[in-house]
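haha ok so turns out i had the wrong file open the whole time. this is the CORRECT one, sorry everyone. sequence first:
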Amino acid sequence: MFVATLIAKPGRLDHALVTSIRDAWGGKEALWLAADEAAEFELEQMPSNRWDIWQSCQDMGVDLVVQPIEGRRKSMLLADMDSTMIEQECIDELADYVGVGEHVKAITARAMNGELDFEEALIERVALLKGKPAGIIDAVLAERITFMPGGAALLATMKANGAYAALVSGGFTAFTAKVGTELGFDENHANTLIVEDATITGEVGRPILGRDAKVTALTEITERLGITAQDVIAVGDGANDLGMLHAVGTGVAAHAKPAVAAEVDTRINHGDLTALLYIQGYTKSDFAI
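then structure:
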C-alpha cells in the first residue's frame, strides 16, 4: 500500500483538488491532517502518471508526496542547517558583515547547486575572512540568524514521540551549537572555523565535513542507536546533502536548488518544515507546539 500526501500553505489546499486526485487514482477516503493545509489518502499502487500530477500540483502551489505507507513514521531526524533549519547561509552572512558578501554568495550558490567541489569552495570562502575579528560570529548569530518556519514544531513533535535528532552541517560549529540547542537537537556536527587571538585565521579545521562526512555521521549515529538508515528521515537543500538524502528511508529536498530537487523523489517546495510531519502521518493536532 502507498499513501499520497498533499500539502500547501495554510488555507490554500483545495478540497476539490484532493478529491479529484484521489478519484483519479482510485484512492481510499481522504484524511485531513490539517484543515485546508494537508490531506492524505491510501492507494494500492504507485500511479504511473505520478510526476505529471505532481507538476500540476506544483503549478497550483501544492506539494505532492507518494510513498509506501509501511515504515513512514521515522525514529530519527537528520537535518542540514544552512537554508534548511535556518533561513540563511552562515558563511554568506559572515562575509556580508565584513563587506565581501556578494563574492562569497556567488561561490555558495554554485557549490550548493553542485557546480563546484564543496570542500574547495568552503576553503576559498573562509580564506576571505582571514584577519577579521572573531566577534563577528556572535554578532551574526545575534542579528542575522532566523529559524526556518516549522522547524521548532518538527523537532518538538518528533522528539515527543521518541525520535532522536541530529544536526549535520557543512557550516560551522559556532552556529550549529546554538541552533541545535535552541531547537532541541540531541547532537550537532559541523566544521570548525579556526580562531586565534580573537581573529579568524581564514582556515577550516580538518577533516572538512561535506557530502561523504554526512553519510558517515548517519552511519555512526544509527549504529550507536541500534536503528537502520531506513528508520531515518533526512532533510536538506544542497548538493552536499544528496548523499544522506539518498541513504535514508525518507530523504526530503526542502526548498532545494533545482539540480538537487531533480535527484530526490520527496520534494517540499511550498510547505514549511511541518511538511515532514505530515508525510509521516502526523496531524496538526499531534504537534507538540
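The first helix runs from residue 15 to 25.
again sry for the mixup
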